[in-house]
Amino acid sequence: MLKEMFPEACKHFRIFSKIEKDAYALVKTILQKRNYQPCGRHDFIDLLLESKQKGKMVGQSIESVKSNGMPEEVSLELTEELMMAQIVVFFAAGFETSSSSTSYTLHELAYNPEEQRKVQEEVDRVLAKYDNKLCYDAVSEMTYLHCAFKEGIRMFPSLGHLVRKCARKYTFPDLDLTIDEGVSLFIPVQALHMDPLYFEEPEKFKPGRFLTDFINPLTKHIYLPFGEGPRACIGERLGLMQSLAGMAAVLSRYSVEPAPETLRHPR
């Protein structure tokens, strides 16, 4: 949390120096084996190497704006250190978040067998339609499975909080509160998700609450498992699909139930 709130100060502390050192060494070895050239594998490292070959990247800023309200034009040089940072972040964000979200949802299904049966019945029905082949189209039709997962990450979001920096000065008219440009904001995602003002009986696992479109103006920007706006998680669709496919594969073959030593409310 300190590193997110005070990134410049934490640069000098190197809190996770061993993890960063080992991760960077691994990535550097891969880059060296490929001679810093795309090798035709068409993976994420190849994409970064191709981008580096094109030189500076130029685009519109999502943080800085001109006096006329138009975004500033910014350029970025893809250095080796920046490439390594992107690879490490993509690896961490693409695996740990999906595994924890899936685990928490299965945890709640284990303690709510009636909801689990509803999900399993839907999974079996949809898979029968697709000759028992677990494909993208099949997973896309598993509405209640999707609802169960959304409810799981409402109760246990992968990131319990978000930190954002104010891009430009803003005043909340109803609060007489002004946030200046550059101020870091701490957004307590899990606290918002568990607030009875926005979710009825928030402590209960109720996938049915997501059967209707989430258009209530009170909750539009309260449900934030993937963030919101231009800084929202770019891997949301991939994360959803791999978690849903994984749960569908498990629940089509097995039922989950708590082990004797399982904690009902993980912390």
Automatic annotation (TrEMBL):
Any one annotated GO CC term: endoplasmic reticulum membrane
Subcellular location: Endoplasmic reticulum membrane; Microsome membrane
The organism of origin for this protein: Papilio xuthus
Lineage: Eukaryota, Metazoa, Ecdysozoa, Arthropoda, Hexapoda
Listed InterPro entries: Cyt_P450, Cyt_P450_CS, Cyt_P450_E_grp-I, Cyt_P450_sf, Insect_CytP450_Detox
Binding site for heme: 233
Protein name: unspecific monooxygenase
Gene that encodes the chain: LOC106126957
Keyword Oxidoreductase attached: yes
GO molecular function: heme binding; iron ion binding; oxidoreductase activity, acting on paired donors, with incorporation or reduction of molecular oxygen, reduced flavin or flavoprotein as one donor, and incorporation of one atom of oxygen
Cofactor(s) the record lists: heme
